[in-house]
Amino acid sequence: MLTLSLPSSTSAIRPSPKTTFTSSKSSFNGLRISHLLPTPTLRATTARQSVVMMAKREEELKEIRTKSTEEINDEIVDLKGELFMLRLQRSARNEFKSSEFRRMRKRVARMLTVKREREIDDGIGKRQSRKLDRQWRKSIVPRPPPSLIKLQEEEAAEEAKESASA
């Protein structure tokens, strides 16, 4: 906490022991007062949560590394389609889980990281990698994301049930 005492006869400022004054060479004609703040301490629950998060992340990376590059590419396309569907739901003001955005983006980033690690192991440089990535993006055949396919199948099943009962 900052405390300043002003004597009635003079205009001197006496800082408290926790306050430091620094002068600066700028157009500001005053004193800059910087406080000495205590360092934040980590709570025990935060440390436990981070350990759990790290374990999940490592487990997911192991799972991704077991897949072939083609499987990773297919899953990247699917996840990007899912992200597109989430953006559509958000723009239409439908209900959706906002946490899915971050989860999917992180999963795509992990997959791209594993893909790049494999390229580095094969001796492919950054420039060649970008060239291959552009070619791969051009070769992608647009397809509906898995959630949309599932939704269409459910609607078709409902229509078949209604037509069978009618």
TrEMBL record:
* UniProt entry tagged with the keyword Transcription regulation: no
In terms of superkingdom, the source organism counts as: Eukaryota
- Composition bias, Polar residues: 1-13
Is the keyword tRNA processing in the record? no
Q: Please provide one cellular component term from the Gene Ontology annotations of this protein.
A: ribonucleoprotein complex
Q: Where is the composition biased (Low complexity)?
A: 15-26
- GO molecular function terms attached to this record: structural constituent of ribosome
Q: Where is the composition biased (Basic and acidic residues)?
A: 121-136
Enumerate the SUPFAM superfamilies for this protein: Ribosomal protein L29 (L29p) (SSF46561)
Q: Where is this region: Disordered?
A: 1-26, 121-166
Biological process GO annotation list? translation
Compartment(s) where it occurs, according to its Swiss-Prot or TrEMBL record: Plastid, Chloroplast
Q: Name one Pfam family in it.
A: Ribosomal_L29
Q: Which InterPro entries match?
A: Ribosomal_protein_uL29 (IPR050063), Ribosomal_uL29 (IPR001854), Ribosomal_uL29_sf (IPR036049)
Question: Which keywords belong to this entry?
Answer: Chloroplast, Plastid, Ribonucleoprotein, Ribosomal protein, Transit peptide
Q: Which family does it belong to?
A: Belongs to the universal ribosomal protein uL29 family.
Oligomer and partners: Part of the 50S ribosomal subunit.
Q: What is this protein called?
A: Large ribosomal subunit protein uL29c
Q: Which organism is it from?
A: Deinandra increscens subsp. villosa
